[in-house]
Write a structure and sequence with these properties.
The complex is a heterodimer. By secondary structure, chain A is mainly alpha-helical. In chain A, 48% of the residues lie in helices and 5% in strands. Chain B is an alpha/beta fold. Chain B is globular. The chains are: A mainly alpha, B alpha/beta. At the A-B interface, β2, α3, α7 and α8 of A face α1, α6, α7 and α8 of B.
Chain lengths: 556, 444
């Protein structure tokens, strides 16, 4: 079976042995001739299935039902750190999960039938009222105009349900059918093929509306977006910009912005992190929830309220929480003269933005001790987009046992003494040791057991190489790094398009990254530019004939 | 917690047709045996169960000593002593590890498919990236032939199998079509048994309604599949195949299996619930076979590179981390032995349960073959030879049991061929990427 995929989503450090491996960042990106022009190449857009969260949000907005039905779905796939079901096909189990969820939702929806109906069947008659409902609900469920034949087929489903029981039962079946249709479950795109340039076709208005709403809101388009699509306003940069402005100002954007940052920093499922209660009795489910909420509020405060930059995200000393347990962990209190909703400043020499948040520190640590390795690896992979290989066979990668006679740093340094490990760990541990002031739940410490904390570190293989002491210093360096800016751009690209980038996206990503570093640096600006980019606004169908292409990672 | 969950069970039935909650749950009586006792001497169906446990074993503690039919089990397989006459311990098989991916990925992808990995986004320890397996797995290949005779073509159950990626998937409907195992015992219960409680009249109506909805979905998928190419078409056609299987199930007779009573109320994802989830999934797997809901099943304990912490064995280091330690580390040897022995005890529990279901003059175990594999030979070498395989059960008389078979680095694809032969796919000459050389010599 020929392989039709082209994967370059990750930049893997195939060898950790020398700094040459760092140059691969640019080695694969030949100038494509459009540097100052619009990027014309676009990676293949594969069919995407709604994530569990998108499913729940969409059902909420379509039918007004808020209880989660997707919690029992099989796990979502990931693109980089972000959930996106874009890789594999589903099997019977998942099709059945969709059927069960659809039947349950339909049952609940007809429990509040009046709220759902655009008409009174007593006035207009059962079947005409069902037709009206189909005409209203169908386009919302499919996120586009309903074709005449589709409406007829839905009415036939209604007829079966009505014949088996009554009007409400017919409506119930219509809803169950809509929710199992591939037009609901997948983000189906064809583009405007007649206007396309070869395989690349500009998206229809409704397809743009759908991409925008799942990008920024993680849910289906609202009435205004549908109206803009119906009016043909989403095929121009201006039309899209108007909607992006409006959508970012809408409370729903706070879901999307939070979701990006929670996933980027790995804390999206913080509630599943387990800590050793003998060492960290404070780490209760409530505290984990507060930590995660703080990261979400911080991201929204920086990106949406303060129109902030990567530097703001990485260096702000503000804590966006009123949770007394979490503030206690940070060693501060919420002063009485401060109003609620006002961020609390933390000690500047201790805290610097997302990297030192309790959520991030708790997530990237062991159950009973900190983890310089996990933390260093996290920075290397998620902020620098330099994916490290896992440890080779035959090495001891068990974390050293807590041993009060040595500091964490000393114990992890011993484990790095093996030359087989040192090459990679030089890239990891120099970053990771910088976090040693934060214990496994993110609390500041000057002492690690009886040992004075040594948080001096080093960073190599970047454009901001050098030594540093503690994370505020490291964060200040990273905030200036064009590699971090380029990585941030890539992460947003993956999040926005729900797929990994390919060679064909190089021009887009390079140009977005350049505009981020050369402009005012605001994340909102980056979001805007992604939304109007050729990649976001067009669809490149998977080739019908196999056309294997070299993954970028294999070129080396 | 328990109350909340049992409410959910009843509400599922209520949703399915407004049947009053609280219908009496009968005692669990196997369907087939009852029919057999009713006079019609039907032959009992032949079943197969695939089992997976991760991170390799310790060969020297796994391998039996002795000869082909006079052997002593090693400490890891010792819990299966009572079933020695119904075991075939197979030593010396090699799982081909060519192409993309790291050994955990390749071993998992190849275990039941006998194929290599496609390209994809999953980064392994050698720095390269790989995707899902490039072929169908043996259970699905079998299910394509025998699956139509039971309500479910096959069942894939899991215990803490985790997210969706190449490490966590062993069953494949085809290239790039991994099948997600069901990890939640409660959801498994609802899937397999909840509908059986709605009565004949309810079932007739449910069928008619589902028929219309599934027809509708089928038409949408068929049209879309024609309009797409490459991987998109694979996805839509796989979805279509799934819906068609559901349609077919919808048209089959109402199962006349009494509903088992099971109590749950556990968090299926918490580390320490692992043993409990394992037992509850085994219980339901056995019931599903006893009711002839399926003849092809699998149970996957955790995933390749499993990081389960065996706290109930007083261990606090994750299984994968432990498996990397050197052979001269006594802690590694003791704990890896304990873990693999624990899995053997779970296998024994499965065999116990199968043996407790009467079928004619024998038991369900007599008509079943259990096949237990692993993605590696050994954790600290990441080897692909010898990967430990154990067969168990009566195999409906088709395989001589009570043997210890030794091979000299033979591709395990030939075992997969033998499994096809056991299930009646006599024409199968090769499986996966290995050239056609038939089944494993001397097995069947």
């Amino acid at each position: 079976m020929a392989n039709l995929r082209m994967w370059i989503a990750v930049l893997v450090l195939a060898s950790c042995s020398n700094n040459e491996s760092m140059d691969i960042d640019t080695a694969g990106s030949e100038p494509m001739g459009f540097a100052d022009d619009e990027c014309r190449q676009v990676g293949v857009t594969e069919l995407r299935r709604l994530t569990a969260r998108q499913y729940d949000n969409t059902v909420r907005d379509l039918l007004g039902l808020t209880s989660s039905k997707a919690a029992s779905f099989s796990a979502d796939e990931h693109v980089g750190p972000f959930r996106s079901n874009v890789i594999s096909a589903i099997g019977e189990l998942q099709a059945e999960q969709y059927m069960n969820a659809a039947e349950t939702i339909a049952f609940e929806a007809v429990g509040q039938l009046e709220a759902l109906l655009p008409c009174d069947p007593a006035d207009v008659g059962d079947r005409p009222c069902a037709q009206q409902l189909i005409a209203e609900l169908g386009p919302k469920a499919y996120r586009r105009a309903l074709r005449e034949q589709e409406a007829e087929r839905l009415l036939a489903v209604y007829d079966v349900g009505d014949a088996e029981d009554d009007f409400a039962n017919g409506i119930r079946l219509v809803i169950a059918a809509l929710l199992q249709s591939p037009h609901f479950l997948y983000l189906v795109e064809f583009g405007r093929k007649d206007e396309g340039n070869g395989a690349i076709a500009p998206l229809t208005d409704h397809e743009v509306a759908t991409r925008l709403s799942y990008f920024l809101w993680d849910t289906m388009p609202d009435t205004t977006l549908f109206a803009a699509a119906n009016a043909g306003e989403l095929t121009t940069n201006d039309g899209i910009s108007v909607q992006v402005d409006r959508m970012l100002a809408d409370p729903r954007a706070r879901t999307g912005i939070a979701s990006f940052h929670l996933q980027w920093f790995g804390v999206d499922e913080l509630e599943t992190v387990e800590k050793d209660p003998r060492v960290y009795p404070e780490f209760t489910p409530a505290l984990a929830v507060a930590m995660k909420a703080e990261t979400a509020a911080f991201a929204n405060g920086v990106v949406l309220d303060a129109h902030g930059t990567i530097a703001t995200l990485l260096t702000s000393e503000l804590a966006f929480t009123e949770d007394s347990q979490l503030l206690t962990l940070y060693g501060v209190t919420h002063s009485m003269d401060q109003g609620l909703g006002i961020p609390v400043p933390l000690p500047l020499d201790q805290r610097a933005g997302l990297l030192t948040q309790a959520s991030v520190m708790a997530r990237h640590a062991h159950a009973e001790q900190s983890s310089p390795v996990h933390r260093g690896k996290f920075v290397r992979e998620n902020l620098l987009c330099q994916i490290l290989p896992s440890p080779p066979p035959d090495v001891d990668n068990t974390p050293p046992n807590p041993d009060p006679s040595a500091s964490t740093r000393e114990r992890f340094e011993q484990h790095r003494a093996d030359p087989a490990c040192a090459a990679c760990h030089d890239l990891i541990d120099g970053l990771g040791f910088g976090f040693e002031h934060y214990d496994a739940i993110g609390r500041w410490r000057d002492l690690d057991g009886i040992h004075m904390v040594d948080a001096s570190g080093w960073i190599v293989g970047t454009d901001v190489d050098g030594e540093f002491d503690g994370i505020p210093e490291l964060a200040a360096r990273l905030a200036e790094s064009t590699i971090v800016a380029e990585c941030t751009t890539r992460q947003w690209f993956r999040f926005a398009l729900g797929r990994g980038e390919t060679l064909d996206d190089t021009c887009t990503i390079d140009s977005l990254a350049r505009e981020l570093t050369e402009g005012d640096g605001s994340i909102e600006g980056l979001i805007h530019r992604i939304a109007v980019s050729q990649a976001f606004r067009s669809h490149r169908a998977a080739p019908i004939e196999p056309q294997p292409q070299q993954p970028r990672g294999d070129e080396r | 917690m328990i109350d909340d969950r049992s409410d959910r069970r009843f509400s599922r039935r209520r949703i399915l047709l407004g049947v009053a909650a609280g219908s009496v749950l009968g005692p669990f009586v196997p369907l087939l045996d009852r029919e057999a006792r009713g006079g019609s001497p039907l032959p009992f169906p032949t079943r197969i169960i695939l089992l997976f446990s991760p991170n390799g074993t310790l060969h020297e503690r796994w391998v039996p000593t002795g000869t082909i039919d006079d052997f002593t089990l090693g400490p890891i397989l010792a819990p299966l002593e009572a079933y020695k006459a119904q075991l075939v311990v197979i030593d010396g098989l090699r799982v081909i590890h060519d192409g993309l991916g790291d050994p955990h990925q390749r071993g998992m992808g190849a275990l039941w498919t006998g194929t290599g990995l496609r390209s994809g986004p999953f980064v392994g320890f050698n720095g390269g990236s790989a995707g899902y397996a490039s072929g169908i797995s043996v259970d699905q290949s079998i299910a394509n032939t025998v699956g139509g005779e039971s309500r479910y073509r096959s069942l894939e159950l899991g215990v803490h199998t985790g997210g969706a990626n190449v490490w966590t998937r062993m069953c494949y409907a085809g290239p790039d079509q991994p099948l997600a195992p069901a990890d939640d015992p409660q959801a498994t219960f609802e899937r397999l048994f909840a509908e059986l409680g709605i009565g004949m009249a309810g079932f007739a109506r449910l069928k008619a309604e589902r028929r219309s909805v599934l027809d509708f979905v089928t038409d949408d998928l068929a049209v879309l599949a024609r309009q797409h190419g490459a991987n998109d078409r694979i996805k839509l056609e796989a979805h279509l195949t799934a819906i068609r299987a559901m349609e077919q199930r919808n048209e089959t007779a109402t199962p006349r299996c009494d509903i088992p009573t099971l109590e749950f109320g556990l968090d299926p994802d918490a580390n320490d619930s692992f043993p409990e989830v394992s037992r509850r999934q085994i219980d339901q797997l056995v019931m599903a076979l006893a009711c002839d809901l399926t003849r092809v099943a699998s149970l996957q304990w955790s995933s390749a590179s499993s990081i389960v912490r065996f706290t109930w064995l007083r261990q606090d280091v994750a299984h994968h981390d432990l498996s990397h330690l050197g052979d001269d580390d006594p802690a590694m040897v003791d704990q890896m032995t304990a873990i693999n022995r624990w899995y053997a005890e779970e296998v024994k529990y499965l065999l116990d349960r199968l043996a407790a279901v009467p079928e004619g003059n024998g038991t369900l175990l007599d008509h079943t073959l259990v096949v237990w594999g692993n993605e590696l030979s050994r954790g600290n070498s990441h080897g692909n030879h010898p990967v430990p395989f154990v067969l168990a059960g009566g195999a409906n008389g088709r395989i001589a049991m009570g043997r210890y078979l030794r091979y000299d680095s033979i591709e395990h694809n030939r075992l997969l061929v033998s499994l096809c032969h056991y299930m009646g796919l006599d024409e199968q000459e090769a499986f996966g990427n290995d050239p056609s050389r038939g089944g494993l010599d001397g097995l069947l």
